[in-house]
Design brief:
elongated
Length: 216
C-alpha cells in the first residue's frame, strides 16, 4: 500500500538505476532532502524525464512505498536552461548541489537552503555576477544558515568592504543575497575567507569541487 504526497523542491542529483530508471535526490520545502526512483525516466518521452534532471525546480508527486519512494510526476517551474548551456556555470551548479546533499537532512526544515539554492542558480545564469562571487556567497551563506558561522578570522585583517559584505550576508534573507557586486580586492578576500570557512566547518572532499577547480 502506498500513499501519494506533493512537494516543492529542486533536484540535487540524478543517477542511473537499472536499465531505464534513475535515482533522484530532491531538496524539498516540506520534507527536507528526500530520494526516490523515477521509473522509466531514461525512456524517450517519459512523463518523469523532467523529474530526473539536476537543477530542475518544481512540484513533484511522490508515491511513498514500504521500501522506496517513487516519483510519479513533475510540474516544472524552472529548468535553468541557460545554465545547462554554460559549461562553467554548470560545473559551479553541480558543486553547489553536492554541498546541499552533504549538509541537508530528511525531515529537516530546509526552506532557507532551498531558497538559497534557487537564487544561486539564478545568479549563475545571470551575466551580472562573477561566478567566483556566487561561489563565495553560497558557501558563506550556507554555513550561516546552518548556524556554524564563526565571524571573520581573528588572525586576518580585512578591508572594511569585506567586513561589511560578511555582515550584510549574515543579516540578509537568502532571497536577497545576490544584490551586489564587489571590487576585485574584496572578491579575493571573500574567496579566501570562504575557502578557509568551508575547510574549518566541513573538512569534506567534494568530488565536483575538484573538477571545478581543475576546469573552470
Amino acid at each position: 500500500m502506498s500513499s501519494n504526497y506533493e512537494v516543492t523542491g529542486m533536484v540535487l542529483s540524478s543517477v542511473p538505476a537499472g536499465e531505464y530508471d534513475r535515482r533522484v535526490e530532491i531538496l524539498t520545502r516540506e520534507r527536507g532532502r528526500i530520494s526516490g526512483f523515477a521509473q522509466g525516466a531514461r525512456r524517450p518521452g517519459s512523463p518523469v524525464m523532467a523529474a530526473a534532471q539536476p537543477f530542475v525546480f518544481g512540484t513533484f508527486v511522490i508515491s511513498e512505498g514500504r521500501t522506496a519512494n517513487k516519483i510519479r510526476e513533475a510540474r516544472v517551474d524552472n529548468f535553468f536552461a541557460g545554465l545547462r548551456k554554460d559549461v562553467s556555470g554548470s560545473l559551479y551548479g553541480t558543486y553547489f548541489m553536492e554541498v546541499l546533499q552533504y549538509v541537508t537532512r530528511e525531515n529537516n526544515d530546509e526552506t532557507a537552503l532551498l531558497m538559497l539554492a534557487y537564487q544561486t542558480l539564478r545568479a549563475l545564469e545571470s551575466d551580472a555576477f562573477d561566478n567566483r562571487l556566487v561561489r563565495a556567497v553560497f558557501e558563506i551563506k550556507t554555513i550561516m544558515i546552518e548556524g556554524e558561522y564563526p565571524g571573520p578570522r581573528r588572525d586576518t585583517k580585512y578591508l572594511d568592504a569585506t567586513l561589511y559584505t560578511l555582515d550584510f550576508l549574515f543579516r540578509t534573507a537568502p532571497s536577497r543575497v545576490y544584490t551586489f557586486s564587489v571590487k576585485p580586492e574584496v572578491l579575493e578576500e571573500l574567496g579566501s575567507y570562504a575557502r578557509w570557512l568551508c575547510k574549518k566547518t566541513w573538512d569534506h572532499r567534494f568530488q565536483s569541487l575538484e573538477i571545478l577547480e581543475l576546469l573552470a
